[in-house]
């Protein structure tokens, strides 16, 4: 997506960290429910670091992402966190953690084999009692076509966006999302960009089966988040005994 590369500097205007406080508090409560003594965590696919801005107050967190441009945005927001560029399917950090957290970056994988690689790599980075928490935007059971809009002004710059999600083929594991951005730069120039993304869509049973293959037990937890309508779930994956 352009938003994670050449348009990355506009990310804080599309998705400001101030909109994540409630969301992050829900994740923290869930994490502590399953592991009350988290001291060291890593986030795979941390993007601009919005969730980490709140989570880092409770434990140390290493932030990783495939996009160096997005990590630079996160460094500005979270200068006190370690940042590592890399692919969550094969990232090697050389240390173990109490928690691996994956937010909606997981949705960019449309093949089950890629999800399995991520899960197995997460397990490699967990200590004996560590947990994996995944927040997928949608499951087959919960998906519905939607539109969203938003954006903010910051100084002289501003951005507004329209997001349209749909599924042209309900027999595959892929949904499509179109984005329209209207941006105003510091000189007052207004211009537009379009963007496109494909996201993975898997059933809860498929998620559970993949996590089982990777050595986890899956626990689906319903979250009550005021920013979203309908059912919203996180997956807490605890390690199976060897």
Description of the molecule:
It is a single chain. It contains six helices and twelve strands. With 242 residues, the protein is an alpha/beta fold. The strands form two sheets. It has a seven-stranded mixed sheet with strand order 3-2-1-4-5-12-11, with helices on both faces. A hairpin with a 5-residue loop joins strand 9 (174-184) and strand 10 (190-200). The radius of gyration is 18 Å and the shape is globular. The mean pLDDT is 96.
Low-confidence parts: none
What percent of residues adopt helix (DSSP H or I)? 10-25%
Order of helices and strands: HHEHEHEEHEEEEEEHEE
**Amino- and carboxy-terminal Cα gap:** 40 Å
**What does the largest sheet look like?**
7 strands, mixed
Strand share of the residues?
25-35%
Largest sheet, spatial ordering of strands: 3-2-1-4-5-12-11
Which structural category do the helix and sheet elements fall into?
alpha/beta
Q: What is the count of helical runs? A: 6
Shape: globular
Mean pLDDT: 96
